Amino acid sequence: VQISVAKSGGNVTTSLQYGVMEEEINHCGEGGLYAELIRNRAFQGSTTYPSNLDAWSAVGGSALSLQNLSNPLSSALPTSVRVEGNGTSGLTNVGFWGIDVRPQKYSGSFYVKGSYKGSFIASLQSITNGEVFATAKVSSKSVADDWVQHDFTLTPKKTAPSTNNTFSLTFDASKASGGSLDFNLISLFPPTWNNRPNGMRRDLMQAMRDLNPKFLRFPGGNNLEGNSIDGRWKWNETIGPLKSRPGRATTWGYGETGGMGLVEYMEWCDDLGLEPILAVWSGLALNRQVVSKANIGVYVQDALNELEFLTGSVDTEYGALRAKYGHPEPWTIRFVEVGNEDSLNGGASSYKSYRFAAFYDAITEKYPDIQVIASTLDITLPGNAGGDYHLYDIPDNFVKKFNLFDSYSDEHPILLGEIAATEWNNGKGVDWSDTHFSLYPWWLASVSEAVFLLGAERNADKIIGTTYAPYFMNLDSYEWSPTMISFNANPDDTAKSTSWHVYSLFNDNHMTNTLPATSNSSFGPLYYATGLNNKTNSHIFKAAVYNSTADVPVSLTFEGIGRGTTADLTILTAPSGFSMNEVGGPNTVESQTTKIKAGKQGVFSFSLPNLSVAVLTTK
Ligand code: AHR
């Protein structure tokens, strides 16, 4: 295939290009990114919802009972646990399907109520053989009628052989008045990313940062929408002290504590240099409840309050609240998405007729610099509004959509807010009625995604950015596969998927401008995008080969680039189209970079094998 790339005539591309989509699904936050190790720490419910003793059990002969006391820890956390016994008593937690123990400092705390003159023992120990890895003796400050917080640290001397470990908190019940004490908000964190209190799990942040993403779309996804209007994701219930966060039932069948809230999302953006794409609730819940036109103003105001909380000066009501919670400096929000998939679940007509317009008008009036994005393209977009496009499909259909954006105008930018090849080629498309979705991305699917991404890169002036979804999965409890990154309780097992490697290669070789190309052959089985990076002054060719019966020879020229110019050519392949990167397993994606030189008339000659993804950059 001969390809000649012109030296001008292209477009300026999006600076965001590839990012991350996050919502609470697959225990990606609770039991994942959010580094809290104690599951069901405040008896808000965990795998089921609401209040229960999930993940807890009694130590020795003691008994645990849930209590809704007349003087609870807080109105947000009304349920606590009473531990009753004789002698050594307490409770133990199995974590999020294991607890990773290694020689590092674990910071813990708990609230207790009841008259007690002794001390507490916090410990980490093996379930397999009872070996104790660390203990801390905590002197009691507990009193009869009030909740008192106790802090402690645990520092194991060695790495536990597995994550089959528990956390225990015990006391001498014979020294407690009435032989019992009440506990709540029992928490334990390992060292977190940037050592933030209430922070994020280091290995997962690292796996994300290694991919060099540019934006974060949050907090959903279906989880933003809620199972009912009242069950929606409420930003104001995810801020402030942890004891003020009530938690909620996610839409994915388990509870969330609210510990990873709005501020934590923004800190995540700060820590990884991500552009926030904030989704606000749009008046549609998954049970098809829709807010009427008469009442939509309440929720529009709530979105404006949220924006004031994030961006307002400390002289505003909500800006002052942000300052009170430790962030006097306002954040900048440039993108707001209104809802999620509002063309589904009975939301289409109300979204088209009044819901989107109500948010768009109010947000653009108060914040003219914010790019408002509709959660669907199935709507006539007003002004400069953008739209969100989601694609879950079989690999062949990803390839068929290579040209999808060629016919779009750049009037209304598109967010590719959820993208994933989910099940094997079946000659049709995704079968939503059953569960054929692959557990992990597999190489053929990742190459098909690359073809689709190249189609988007060729039109990158029309696109805000692209993200895989869902992004994370805890293999011990998940609802939706495949995902970009998979993990369990052991950070050493975290798997960057085959798709991760494709996105990473494309992201590391960002084109600031597209350049038009002509060829002696039409697209397929070789698909490509061409352009340059005007910061590094490098010309770029990105390609994928899908469904070829032989290697594809390529003769590539860039207008103005002469004989002898060198380039790096990186080619990704895998042992087979079925290769997957599994939790605890090896990386199956092979990456080979060679230096090549332009020959006569500046031609770069090379060939690309079937099911390969490649990038050539001139030096
Ligand atoms: O990514 C999983 C789900 O797929 C999202 O929550 C929803 O937006 C989409 O339907």
TrEMBL record:
Q: What family is this protein classified in? A: Belongs to the glycosyl hydrolase 51 family.
Q: What is the lineage of its organism?
A: Eukaryota, Fungi, Dikarya, Ascomycota, Pezizomycotina
Catalyses which reaction(s): Hydrolysis of terminal non-reducing alpha-L-arabinofuranoside residues in alpha-L-arabinosides
Q: Which InterPro entries match?
A: Alpha-L-AF_C, ASD1_cat, GH, Glyco_hydro_b, Glycosyl_Hydrolase_51
What's the EC number here?
3.2.1.55
Q: Which Pfam families match?
A: Alpha-L-AF_C (PF06964), ASD1_dom (PF22848)
Q: Identify the keywords attached in UniProt to this record, alphabetized.
A: Glycoprotein, Hydrolase, Signal
Q: What class of enzyme is it?
A: hydrolase
The reply to whether S-adenosyl-L-methionine figures as a keyword in the UniProt entry is no
Name the pathway.
Glycan metabolism; L-arabinan degradation
Q: Which organism is it from?
A: Penicillium canariense
In this chain the Alpha-L-arabinofuranosidase C-terminal domain maps to 442-612
Please give the name of this protein.
Answer: non-reducing end alpha-L-arabinofuranosidase
